[in-house]
Amino acid sequence: MSVMTRTLYLWTRRGAMRHAKMLNTDKAWDVFEMLEDSYFVLENFRQMKMREQSKITRRNFTDVLKEFIAYAQKQGTSRPPVAFYSKYSALVNKWVGLPNKKARDTAPSDTVATINFIEDKIAQFMSDSIKQNIPYKDIERRIETFFGAMF
Known about the structure:
5 helices; 75% helix
């Protein structure tokens, strides 16, 4: 048996909630308010978890950067350690479109996730390159070229 129809209405959960709100009953409004409240609680939780992960990633990135600085100093760099930190913070910020380091504190979750990804990959690349005894200047050049092309 086949059924033919000119119109078919498919409802998503959100669409059904919005339609129910139009009914203008107390129960419909209660359900809609509960939906709104739970959405923002979940979004705040998501942002909080992302910031926690960001701190862990940043700590790891900083630890690897310390290793990289020591590695570069063994190869004779005269650049002070703070210059390395500034350089890589500025590069990551540039790649994600942030004007400065302080903008990270108010960056949206997707930007924070991208920062985490980039810093994690740079740390991994630096660590692997140090183990392969690649000169620090080549490591820096490769990071700038590869990640700059990605972002």
